[in-house]
Amino acid sequence: MDERPLPLSRAAEVLGILSVPLAFLAQLVVPAAIMALLAVFVALWGRGRYHREPMRYAKASWTRMRRGLWAGTIGLVTCTVLWVLYGMGLLPF
Predict the structure, then answer these.
(1) Full-prediction pTM beyond 0.70?
(2) What is the Cα–Cα distance from 17 to 89, expressed in whole angstroms?
(3) Is 56 inside a domain boundary?
């Protein structure tokens, strides 16, 4: 059987990785959080697809999906912490 890439694996990786640096800009905390949430949801969806048919998809896609999930989770935590700190006035805008 021919191995195919997981759908949206590259998108999950890019969204997750971009959400981390954007979280540190005060004006872009909310868009970064949305990007991180999308990365996590897409990665979890792709993870489910991979576990249903593991021999159908390429291993490199699985690695990209895992990287996107981790980066999205880190971005989401960073966004949440910084959002709270901006809201409390502890960090300047």
Answers:
(1) yes
(2) 27
(3) yes
